[in-house]
Amino acid sequence: FRLALIQLHVSAVKSDNVQRACELVREASAKGAKVVALPECFNSPYGTQYFKEYAEKIPGESTKKLSEVARECSLYLIGGRSIPEEDGGKLYNTCTVFGPDGAMLAKHRKVHLFDINIPGKIQFKESETLSPGNSFSMFDTPYCKVGLGICYDIRFAEMAQVYGQKGCQLLIYPGAFNMTTGPAHWELLQRGRAVDNQVYVATVSPARDEKASYVAWGHSTVVNPWGEVIAKAGAEETVIYTDIDLKKLAEIRQQIPILSQKRCDLYGIEMKK
């Protein structure tokens, strides 16, 4: 099946971002995409100072548009961090998924909050405004089961291992790595998660905006279960496409059967809830 990643240029105007995202989803559908993913922070600038201002409830304004365009194009739509979600007085970094009938199939709240301090380079603390999610998020398609994470979630190998154990063959991480962590770890982490679990891994970033307060690395990428980069964007707004070959995935797992050769008598990873 064909996967499309939309590397969107995000402005400060929510309605413009949502409209442009829907236009690019339609473009991807016209080119045969059956699963389409939007980047983290697709409808608002990224930054703790923006989360409260742009927050919505789910369902709400932005998710209604995503549901409509998924139904219109009859595809699976991963809504990036569609919105800062407001629920019960708390804010979450939330990714929604809609099916070809427009129904919401999954709602992933970012599990691991990005609190870092790299002296002289970047300091950022999502927990100042956001609360963490507390669950894994998977959804079924006629093609394969898909597991979801958001940005910083990709650094935690255990999360990807659980998804692999639960039968996911594609992991999708909307993300917005910055100009320090992006060149260092963006591709490295994707290739690691793909090889460790013999799955396809797709990451979708906003386009780079040098004038923004937080500058995203860009370079939305798809990695196959052999650890090869099979599609990669530059820094600008674009849509990249790749055909996900589940036969190749099965061949790799047969040739190097790590999933059946794990020593579960010595170690293990479990999903607690």
UniProtKB/TrEMBL annotation:
InterPro entries: C-N_Hydrolase, C-N_Hydrolase_sf, Nit1/2_C-N_Hydrolase
GO CC annotation: mitochondrion
Reactions accelerated catalytically: 2-oxoglutaramate + H2O = 2-oxoglutarate + NH4(+); 2-oxosuccinamate + H2O = oxaloacetate + NH4(+)
EC annotation from Swiss-Prot or TrEMBL: 3.5.1.3
Molecular-function annotations in GO: omega-amidase activity
Keyword Hydrolase assigned: yes
Presence of the UniProt keyword Hydrolase in the record: yes
Domain annotation CN hydrolase: ranges: 1-246
Superkingdom of origin: Eukaryota
CDD domains listed in its UniProt record: nit
Keywords: Hydrolase
PANTHER family: NITRILASE-RELATED, OMEGA-AMIDASE NIT2
Entry similarity comment: Belongs to the carbon-nitrogen hydrolase superfamily. NIT1/NIT2 family.
Protein name: omega-amidase
Species of provenance: Cepphus grylle (Black guillemot)
Primary gene name: Nit2
